Automatic annotation (TrEMBL):
This is Multidrug resistance protein MdtA. Residues 70-190 form the Multidrug resistance protein MdtA-like barrel-sandwich hybrid domain. Pfam families: Beta-barrel_RND_2 (PF25954), BSH_RND (PF25917), HH_MFP_RND (PF25876), RND-MFP_C (PF25967). Keywords: Transport. It comes from Acidithiobacillus ferridurans. It is found in: Cell envelope. SUPFAM superfamilies: HlyD-like secretion proteins. Residues 201-274 form the CusB-like beta-barrel domain. InterPro entries: Beta-barrel_RND_2, MdtA-like_BSH, MdtA-like_C, MdtA-like_HH, RND_pump_MFP. One of its GO terms (molecular function) is efflux transmembrane transporter activity. Residues 106-162 form the Multidrug resistance protein MdtA-like alpha-helical hairpin domain.
């Protein structure tokens, strides 16, 4: 019984050993076959690292503001007796907008004008009498003072009437009317806003580290998400008088023409300040960069000689990128001018992959 058990164990060991040996032999033969198989060549597109001259830029987020913009409010209270505008229309400076009840003031003006005429008559009479020594100098002085007081009263009435007739202080576009006919308003009541749209200010801030690069007259470009693909150009027209001690930022104001009046006060935009000087930078197409949390990299195409045969291989290179303009990305470190980088087909590559670049894929 014991002898039979040993025989079975030996047979099983021989059987499993044979299977295991066959597997090892098969794997070895497959490895040898793969080792002697040529590595497939990957077809990619490539472009050279180019040295360009760029104008340095400072970027910020800005807000558009009207060069002239006010909330039209009355200086005197009263009931509205006339509204002479429509919401959203363009008006010129001096255009009547709203009339506040002026009936009492007109009556006061009529009374004061009558007093002015009487004072003028008395002044003439007194001057005639003093010429014949029938009136004293004090009587003449009193007549002159009375006349001047009457003239001042009439001027005051006209000034009050002007304040009751609300006019556009400058040319611009009106907003939405906020009052109604017959409504009683008090001084400071918002009636309508008035804004000039061409040109517009763009207000933004830059850190004090960039202040030396900001000068009056420096060109700026503004992009707004309302009009993708469009750029609005202007120039810096003013800078703040001091650095904000809380934020260490300084205020900057640029003026941007708006002839088509498509921009509005209150819009925000991405501002780019373009310096006049030029600096040399290395650039590659944006498609060449593979972004990674462990470091951005590119595949550099290099020539390698194997068994006397020259071939091209792709090698990973960690790079430090700068700003992007259009389809070009600035390279701060990691590459040199003239090196060839892969711009298409990176997904098929790994370190050391042999590559070929068709004539149509080389830029």
């Amino acid at each position: 019984m014991k002898k039979a058990f040993v025989i079975v164990i030996l047979i099983l060991l021989i059987l499993f050993g044979s299977i295991f040996g066959f597997k090892l032999y098969g794997n070895y033969m497959m490895h040898q076959a793969l080792a002697h198989m040529p590595v497939p060549v990957v077809s990619v597109s490539a472009s050279k690292v180019v040295e360009r001259e760029w104008h340095p830029e400072v970027t910020a987020v800005g807000s558009f503001a009207a060069i002239q913009g006010v909330e039209v409010t009355p200086q005197l209270g009263g009931a509205i007796t006339g509204i002479y505008f429509h919401s959203g229309e363009y008006v010129k400076a001096g255009t009547p907008l709203i009339q506040i009840d002026n009936s009492n003031q007109l009556a006061q003006l009529a009374s004061d004008e009558a007093q002015q005429r009487l004072a003028q008559i008395n002044l003439r009479r007194t001057r005639t009498l003093i010429a014949t020594k029938a009136a004293s100098q004090s009587q003449l002085d009193s007549a002159v003072a009375s006349y001047q007081s009457a003239v001042a009263a009439v001027k005051n009435d006209h000034a009050t009437l002007a304040k009751l007739a609300i006019r556009a202080p400058f040319s611009g576009y009106l907003g939405v009317r906020q009052v109604d006919l017959g409504q009683y308003i008090i001084p400071g009541t918002a009636m309508v806003d008035l804004q000039s749209w061409d040109p517009l200010f763009v207000n933004f801030t830059v850190p004090q580290s960039d202040f030396a690069r900001i000068h009056v007259g420096t060109p700026v470009q503004v992009e707004v998400d309302s009009y993708p693909g469009q750029t609005f150009s202007g120039k810096i027209t003013a800078t703040g008088a001091a650095i904000n001690t809380a934020t260490r930022q300084i205020d900057v104001q640029a003026t941007v023409p708006n002839p088509k009046t498509i921009l509005r006060p209150g819009m925000f935009g991405n501002v780019t300040v373009i310096e006049k000087r030029l600096e040399k930078v290395l650039t590659v197409p944006a498609s060449a960069i593979t972004y990674n949390t462990f470091g951005d990299f590119v595949y550099v195409v290099e020539k390698k000689t194997v068994h006397g045969k020259v071939s091209q291989i792709a090698l990973q290179r960690i790079v430090k990128t700068g700003i992007q303009r259009g389809n070009e990305v600035q390279i701060l470190s990691g590459l040199q001018a003239g090196e060839l980088v892969v711009t298409g087909g990176q997904i098929k590559l790994h370190e050391g992959s042999p590559v070929e670049i068709p004539a149509s894929g080389k830029a």
